[in-house]
Design the sequence.
């Protein structure tokens, strides 16, 4: 198996053989082939195996806790690896760069979460933090964290993003309402929201790129008086292009 990995590349091998190879060091003195087959059969794919909990993995016959811990840490390692490729202070000066960065940041998260980045006028990343998390189809923002982070930052430019684990990047009415509310709050505290981006598996939605963000950029008083949203039929969902 090691020779096959070296000769043909692990990325070209079937999923069950990749798992079989990964399990070798953690399940000694046993044939890991049937274990790998059982993992794929039970959970559906290599990706779903790696995203499964340690408890569920250990329910598979002959799986060890050490092997389960190892497999479940791999997505976190991949995420860190992908983020480090952007450098310590990446330049998020356009939608493409920003979408690619947030795509790496969310990785394969199965629950909705929300991140905020603070950038300088040139788009250089100054700070990043998670400001919300929820379940598979909703997320609640931590407004206290948002205000504290922006108040302590030397820059007043922020970009917000959250993910849609369903794979559909189209914003819901809640997303519209949240964006309108966020713009209003940001204006009160003197912060400029450059964009609110929704990241799905292979697509994204940018409120700024779609022209929706400018519609929400109004005074807090106007927002309180008029919350009429634009027609959602004009949405533009974009495919993620990760090539520079």
Sequence:
């Amino acid at each position: 198996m090691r020779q096959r990995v070296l000769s043909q590349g692990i990325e070209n091998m079937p999923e069950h053989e990749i798992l079989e190879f990964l399990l070798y060091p953690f399940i000694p003195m046993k044939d890991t082939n049937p274990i790998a087959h059982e993992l794929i059969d039970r959970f559906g794919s290599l990706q779903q195996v790696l995203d499964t909990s340690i408890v569920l993995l250990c329910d598979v016959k002959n799986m060890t806790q050490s092997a389960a811990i190892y497999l479940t840490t791999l997505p976190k390692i991949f995420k860190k690896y992908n983020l480090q490729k952007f450098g310590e202070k990446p330049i998020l000066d356009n939608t493409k760069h920003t979408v690619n960065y947030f795509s790496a940041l969310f990785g394969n998260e199965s629950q909705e979460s929300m991140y905020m980045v603070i950038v300088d006028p040139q788009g250089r990343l100054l700070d990043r933090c998670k400001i919300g998390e929820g379940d598979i189809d909703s997320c609640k923002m931590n407004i206290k964290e948002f205000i504290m982070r922006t108040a302590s930052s030397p820059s007043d430019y922020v970009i917000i993003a959250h993910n849609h684990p369903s794979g559909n990047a189209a914003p819901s009415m809640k997303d519209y309402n949240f964006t309108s509310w966020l713009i209003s709050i940001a204006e009160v505290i003197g912060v400029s929201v450059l964009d609110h981006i929704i990241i799905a598996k292979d697509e994204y939605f940018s409120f700024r790129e779609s022209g929706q963000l400018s519609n929400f950029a109004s005074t807090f008083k106007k927002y309180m008086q008029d919350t009429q949203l634009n027609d959602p039929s004009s949405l533009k969902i974009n495919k993620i292009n990760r090539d520079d």
